[in-house]
Write a structure and sequence with these properties.
The structure holds 2 protein chains of 2 kinds.
Chain A: E1 9-13, E2 18-23, E3 32-38, E4 45-50, E5 55-56, E6 61-64, E7 70-75, E8 84-91, E9 106-111
Parallel strand pairs in A: 1-9
Antiparallel strand pairs in A: 2-7, 3-4, 3-8, 5-6, 6-7, 8-9
Chain B: E1 5-7, E2 10-13, E3 19-24, E4 31-38, E5 42-50, E6 53-56, E7 65-71, E8 74-79, E9 88-95, E10 103-105, E11 109-113
Parallel strand pairs in B: 2-11
Antiparallel strand pairs in B: 1-3, 3-8, 4-5, 4-9, 5-6, 7-8, 9-10, 9-11
Classes of the chains: A mainly beta, B mainly beta.
Chain lengths: 112, 114
């Protein structure tokens, strides 16, 4: 399975944008890029996913490089509630293979 | 919808005892996933079901673990006999169309085996 590489930790100031990078140089043409986050003492929470084009939703934006070998999760205005571990995950578009393999993620700290 | 419901939220048991964890997925979701999270191994997929049928149980650590889904609204994960190394947080998640779409996670069951 294609793997992702993320920084172990990042810090950002409250009310500023946050750019969380993810490298996936071995991504295949049909792999989806997913982002989940896990707040302290909670289960993971879906953030966003995409295939080729940039995606926006109420929580965040996902910017996907043209060669798809990297992506960036953008939180437009960080709040204290955004402090969490953020996971970048690839999932193959194979029906019958429905696994999401979580890595170690990036621990995001928000500074008041 | 109330989201994915798991019970109990906390379980403390002695080594050798049987433990049963329960999960109610979101109504209408066809996929159900069981995960385990520890500090050492992170978040691991144990097994998943599609329309109540187990599809992939390759993540189940050993025969002491078993999972069932008797109907679309209920699933159990059983450990018999339990061991201290089974101590972890167990999450259940459900999805409408599969892992390629949004998975909704429950709050988890924190299991401690002494």
């Amino acid at each position: 399975d294609a793997k992702t590489t993320q920084p172990n930790s990042m810090e950002s100031n409250e009310e500023e944008p946050v750019h969380l990078p993810c490298n996936h140089s071995t991504i295949s043409g049909t792999d989806y890029i997913h982002w989940y986050r896990q707040l302290p003492s909670q289960g993971p929470e879906y953030v966003i996913h995409g295939l080729t084009s940039n995606v926006n939703n109420r929580m965040a934006s996902l910017a996907i490089a043209e060669d798809r070998k990297s992506s960036t999760l953008i939180l437009h205005r960080a709040t204290l509630r955004d402090a969490a571990v953020y996971y970048c995950i690839l999932s193959p578009q194979d029906f019958g293979n429905e696994k999401l393999t979580f890595g170690t993620g990036t621990r995001l700290t928000i500074i008041p | 919808d109330a989201g994915v419901i798991q019970s109990p939220r906390h379980e403390v048991t002695e080594m050798g005892q049987e433990v049963t964890l329960r999960c109610k997925p979101i109504s209408g979701h066809d996929y159900l996933f069981w995960y385990r999270q520890t500090m050492m191994r992170g978040l691991e997929l144990l097994i998943y079901f599609n329309n109540n049928v187990p599809i992939d149980d390759s993540g189940m650590p050993e025969d002491r673990f078993s999972a069932k889904m008797p109907n679309a609204s209920f699933s159990t994960l059983k450990i018999q006999p339990s061991e201290p190394r089974d101590s972890a947080v167990y999450f259940c998640a459900s999805s409408l169309y599969g892992a390629h779409y949004e998975q909704y996670f429950g709050p988890g069951t924190r299991l401690t085996v002494t």
